[in-house]
Amino acid sequence: MEKEVIISAKHLKKVFGSGESEQVIYSDFDIDIYKGDFTVIMGASGAGKSTLMYSLSGMDTPNAGTIEFCGSTITGMTSDELAVFRRKNCGFVFQQIYLIDKMNLIDNVITAGSLTSKNKADIVERANSLFDMVNIPPATRKKLPSLISGGEAQRAGIVRAAINQPSAIFADEPTGALNSNNSDAVLDVFSKLNATGQSIIMVTHDKKSALRGNRVVYIKDGTIFGDCDLGTYSADDKNRTKKLEDFLKEMGW
Predict the structure, then answer these.
(1) Residue 8, Cα to own-chain centre: how many angstroms?
(2) Is 101 left (phi over 0), alpha (psi -120 to 50) or beta?
(3) Helix (H, G, I), strand (E, B) or coil at 126
(4) Interval 45-73: pLDDT, tens
(5) Range of the domain at 70
(6) What is the total count of domains within the chain?
(7) What's the per-residue H, E or C state across 31-47?
(8) Is-contact 218 197, C-beta < 8 A?
């Protein structure tokens, strides 16, 4: 069965600076993102991974080209139109965890949910269901971000990103500031979400994180240098690590 395309970018160009200081990040760049995929974007430092992710999500605007996202052309939208579009269609998880310090975890999530729905009972029910999924107990949900671990905060951040049932969750180095155990817990959450059909686009330089994706796109010199199909994630798949390592070696990583 042919996969459904949820994001289609054509002939993208992104440039920083001008004149002698001009830096072309990518030019005439094409990519399709498929519904239900866990797409991982990799590449050397400075390859434009995060810039691409921000363009695809409408957080940044390319200098040229078009992006179709769930049937809407987001290139050309005003900043206000983009804000409304992102609110309905995008969830974001960053390396830095942007929870509101003076709100407990459940209120952080409810506040995000209220941006697209006025049914508070429904928001609370979905929030608690997601908190259950990420293994954050009811007592911890009532704590302020400063009173929990970094791993718990990042998992709460994923709940906030997923509360509005977005078309896609965008994650930029989500385990970059976490230790190994907390990284594993966060990656388990992404795998669980993806198993429910949630589309995920994740930028990472970490091989362990990349193993969770079913598709790894390698960016080099402003283009897709390689595209690897890892298939559905399974922790017991011994060949998965070798396949990714061989692919990354071929990419010169």
Answers:
(1) 16
(2) alpha
(3) helix
(4) 889 999 999 999 999 999 999 999 999 99
(5) 5-251
(6) 1
(7) EEEECCCEEEEEECCCC
(8) no
